[in-house]
Write a structure and sequence with these properties.
Distance between the termini: 37 Å
Structural class: mainly beta
Number of strands: 11
Order of helices and strands: EEEEEEEEEEE
Strand content: over 45%
C-alpha cells in the first residue's frame, strides 16, 4: 500500500501549487481521500477531503475558496489545487485514505483517526 504525495515546493504569496497523491496497492475507488497539513511546532490539521464518488468535497474554513480537491480514479491519483497561497499555508501536506462502505458515498471524514493509509508528505513553503 502506498500513497505518494508530490508537487510541493517554494512559492510566493498569492501563487499556486497543485499537489498530487498517487495511490497503489489498494483499490482507491473504495476510499475517500483526505488532505492534512502540519506546520512546524503545530498539530496536524485537516484541510480537505473528497468522497469515493468524487461528488462530495469538503474544506476547512482556512482554505475554503482557495483550495480545490479532485480525483481521477482511472489514474489512481488525487489532486489538491492550491491558489492564492498565504504564508500560513506553509506546512507538510499529507494525503490519506479512509475506507468507505460505498463507491457512491458522498461523505468523508475530517478526523485523522478515520484514515488507515497515509502518504509520506510533501513540503509547501509560501514565502517571498
Amino acid at each position: 500500500v502506498q500513497l505518494q504525495a508530490s508537487g510541493g515546493g517554494l512559492v510566493q504569496p498569492g501563487g499556486s501549487l497543485r499537489l498530487s497523491c498517487e495511490t497503489s496497492g489498494f483499490t482507491s475507488e473504495d476510499y475517500a481521500i483526505g488532505w492534512f497539513r502540519q506546520a512546524p511546532q503545530t498539530e496536524r490539521e485537516w484541510a480537505s477531503c473528497i468522497s469515493t464518488s468524487g461528488l462530495g468535497t469538503y474544506y476547512a474554513d482556512s482554505v475554503k475558496g482557495r483550495f480545490t480537491t479532485s480525483r481521477d480514479n482511472a489514474r489512481n491519483t488525487m489532486y489538491l489545487q492550491m491558489n492564492s497561497l498565504k504564508p500560513e499555508d506553509t506546512a507538510v501536506y499529507y494525503c490519506a485514505a479512509d475506507r468507505r462502505s460505498s463507491r457512491r458515498d458522498r461523505g468523508c471524514s475530517e478526523v485523522d483517526y478515520s484514515y488507515v493509509y497515509w502518504g509520506q508528505g510533501t513540503d509547501v513553503t509560501v514565502s517571498s
